[in-house]
TrEMBL record:
Superkingdom of origin: Bacteria
One term of GO molecular function: ATP hydrolysis activity
Xref: SMART domains: AAA (SM00382)
Key word ATP-binding present: yes
BP-aspect Gene Ontology terms: peptide transport; transmembrane transport
Protein's name according to its UniProt entry: Peptide ABC transporter ATP-binding protein
Family named by the database record: Belongs to the ABC transporter superfamily.
Amino acid sequence: MTATTTGTVTGPTAATAPALEVRDLHITYPPRAGRGPARAVDGVDLELGRGEILALIGESGCGKSTLARALTGLVKPTSGQVLCDGEPLRYTSAALKAHRRKVQFVLQDPGGALNPRQNVFDAVAEGPRLHRMRDGLEQRVHTALSKAGLRPPEQFLSRFPHEMSGGQQQRVVIAGALALEPSVIVADEPVASLDASVRGEILKLVLDLRRDLGLSSLVVSHDLGLAWNIADRVAVMYLGRIVEVGTVEEVLLAPRHPYTKALLSVVSAEGARGGRPQLLQGEPPDPTAVPEGCRFHPRCPLWAGLDAADRAEAGCDRRTLPVLPAQAPAGGQAACHLASVS
């Protein structure tokens, strides 16, 4: 960072800045039905590098989808910043439109994302038409369909969603995103609604798009197997915060946070051989009642195994943990008072 002659601070150039970044992001929904405000995203720093595939992992309700929607401009933060190519996102209509051309959102359910009355051509052409990209529209649609793996595209142009498989529908949704030539794809559970037989094909497509187009991708999922197969880095989210981040090898082969370990125990090779997964105790996360101290401690098996003296020394129930940095140092990082002894 350097200072200009006017005293303002300038950040990295677009060429060196992360493709997408959030700084101290908070998203709080107002109270309702007698409950307090919901801290859906509660202090997140995170970077998506150029050409990187980052997997955002966690249970349902932990804030993953809200964070993904904020990255695409669909949710305005309560505080903090979203930056694209080093430039803060502004929330005017024109700025949001320009941002969404560069950062495209791929929804979980392709059947719900596609208009049943639109054929494939119109579905893929909808984005370019909204952005007034009408020159060469037919070729643009053909190219997008080919990149999404629907070849030859002529065979699909006149089809309607009900005439295609779930995997083909998801490829149409991805083609609709590619038609705008984005630099970033944010995919929310992109294979969750698909049969196991086609999940691998869609994940391979994400890898192919990175290889062929240099696309950066943030993939939201609860599936650790997905992260292992396609991600460069993994960020684990719990109750509005990133609690562990590192390379896929650091997080999945040598996890430091007890929450990550519990998630992994369910799908580990030992579990597959009949070992007992580590079950989390207590209720699922509630963003309207974030605990004091470490927000995971009420469900933490390490905390549960401590005696009173060790609990007092650890302070998990009273000492607040800092927000993890956007880029973890080598070896990864975990937001846990007990990570050094776990």
